[in-house]
Amino acid sequence: MKKEIFTPGRTELAGNHTDHQKGRILASGVDLGLYAACTKNDERIIRVSSAGYAPFEVNLRQMDVRPKEFGSSLSLVRGMAAAFAELGLEIGGFDAKLRSTLPAGSGLSSSAAFSVMIGRILSELYNDGKVDPVVIARAAQTAENRYFGKPCGLMDQLACSLGHTVYVDFKTNEIEPIVADFGSMGLTLCLTDTGGSHAGLDTSYARIPADMVYVANLFDKGVLADVDPEEFKARGYSAADRPIRRAMHFFGENERVPKMRDALKRGDGETYMRLMNESGRSSEKLLNNIVTSATGDTKLAQGLELSAKLLEGKGAWRVHGGGFAGCVQALMPSDYFESYRTAMEKDFGAGTCREIRLA
Questions:
Q1: DSSP secondary structure string for all residues of 158-227
Q2: HSE-up (13 A, CA, CB side) for residue 302
Q3: Distance of CA 165 to the CA centre of its chain
Q4: What is the pLDDT of residues 148-169, one digit of tens each?
Q5: How far apart are CA 105 and CA 303, in angstroms?
Q6: Is the dihedral of CA 256, 261, 263, 264 positive or negative?
Q7: Is the pTM higher than 0.70?
Q8: For tag attachment on the chain, is the N or C end more exposed, with fewer CB atoms within 10 Å?
Q9: Which domains does the chain have, with CATH numbers?
């Protein structure tokens, strides 16, 4: 029997690089995502095909991590099946045909959406559709960490798996669904793909949690969420040091996330945009995840600079997601969006600026 399954992409709203330190995040599924038509088979083989990509298959009798597969969709399928098996869940073969409405380079976390999609298929076909979305998200994080080779936190997978706007405190395990609608506030949210490549950036991404853990270790803690922010401030560390700056970003961002959640809940667009700008400037000046010496790519920085010129006094702009390349997230009065999009696409190309609607 054929099953039809949809998994949304996600947009990060607040909590830039806080999830891997057991901090707080605000994220949402979006109206774009992955669709799968899938059927069970009895061959212990998973076959995946998608328009524009070569079909591939994974033999479920071979579940070991394969470093040569790092960064591939193949690794995510193998990793999801292995994670389900480790949890004592049923796994088996299937044939899946995928269709995506996630534009390439959109910054909507296609790898997390893909991992979660595989988990949903295994849940529907072999576990009566009863695997909890949080369990699927954690399995997807395991697949990305171990099999895909990306040291990511849980935010992307959780937002894709839950499929709506959500506030999460990873220290307390609080998960709060949020009813959010920028349109009702007269605002438009968008992402602009600046065209920077993420190739060769794994080390740059990995340095961020490593730097934060280094500072946490100075307090005999494993992650920054376990460090008292006041004790950190009292030590008077120099902001000249990169790990210290990144810790400063964490503490400021972690305090800001629930304030942005509350502004979103009460429909206070003015306060939300002010806090969004604070988040963006913290990522630029303290987290330093805009330009990296690994590539020297400045497209993201250019997108942020242009957004500043266009939106100063009107809206908000920030780096979206991991950084170092990729997308600018912007929020503005809806009647200004077409003017903003025209200006951004003049520099970055037709179709690079897209309105995003929260799921």
A1: HHHHH-S-EEEETTTTEEEE----GGGGTEEEEEEE-----TT-HHHHHHHHHHHHHHHHHTT-SSGGGS
A2: 16
A3: 13
A4: 988 787 888 999 999 999 999 9
A5: 14
A6: positive
A7: yes
A8: N
A9: 3-177 (3.30.230.10), 182-355 (3.30.70.890)
